[in-house]
Amino acid sequence: MNILVVEDDKLSNLVLCKKLEKLGHTVLSAENGRDGWYTYLRENPRIVITDWMMPVIDGLELCRMIRADRRLRYVYIIMLTARGGRDNFLEGMNAGADDFLTKPVDIDSLQGRLRVAERVVNLQTVASELEGLLPICIYCKKIRDEHDVWQPVEQYVVQRTETSFTNAVCPDCGKRVTGTPMEE
């Protein structure tokens, strides 16, 4: 799994990256939220482990930025902090974190949480693929929508996009109907 570690303490960053690599993950690293954001945009990791308190852009803002990005693939975010307590936990979750670990990080706890992260990311991938399937009648080509209503393809598309349609006849259908080839 591709994991982005965003941690401003160089030693903590290095130690965490090495432990994650030993667990078999591909690890990307950034030393502040701004660099983490650019690495996220460029590399599209599935999991982000970010420190809360960092220079330039902190972990909370990085979480908000990732959630606002709305990529098709879900990114699981684990927030690391020395801060404890319910209010800090809720603040991190409200910013978009999926999980919360206090420092120093216990590698066994992190490994367990990464298993959960992988399951969530994999389930989201399957759900996205299923959402992308459109049931279409093989005879009349109507599409069944989310309310189990069958409607013409054109109506379905117009209701959900900025697309509009014009009528045309393709060369194959024109030849079948008229018996002579039609211009494209």
Global structural class: alpha/beta
* Number of helices, counting only DSSP H or I runs of 4 residues or more: 7
Please report the distance between the alpha carbons of the first and last residues.
48 Å
Give the C-alpha Rg: 24 Å
CATH architecture title of the largest domain: 3-Layer(aba) Sandwich
Largest beta sheet: what is the strand line-up? 2-1-3-4-5
CATH topology of the largest domain: Rossmann fold
Plain-language structure description:
The structure is a single chain. The protein is an alpha/beta fold. The chain folds into two domains: 2-131, Rossmann fold (3-Layer(aba) Sandwich); 143-178, no CATH class. The protein has seven helices and seven strands. The chain has helices spanning 10-22, 33-43, 59-69, 86-95, 107-131, 153-160, 171-178, and strands at 2-6, 26-30, 47-51, 76-81, 99-102, 143-144, 150-151. The strands form two sheets. It has a five-stranded parallel β-sheet, sandwiched between helices. It has a two-stranded antiparallel sheet with strand order 6-7. Helix 4 (86-95) links the parallel strand 4 (76-81) and strand 5. Helix 2 (33-43) packs parallel to helix 3. It starts with a strand and ends in a 6-residue tail after the last helix.
Quick tags:
184 residues, alpha/beta, Rossmann fold, five-stranded parallel beta sheet, two-stranded antiparallel ribbon, 7 strands
Can I get a quick summary?
With 184 residues, the protein is α/β, with parallel strands linked by helices.
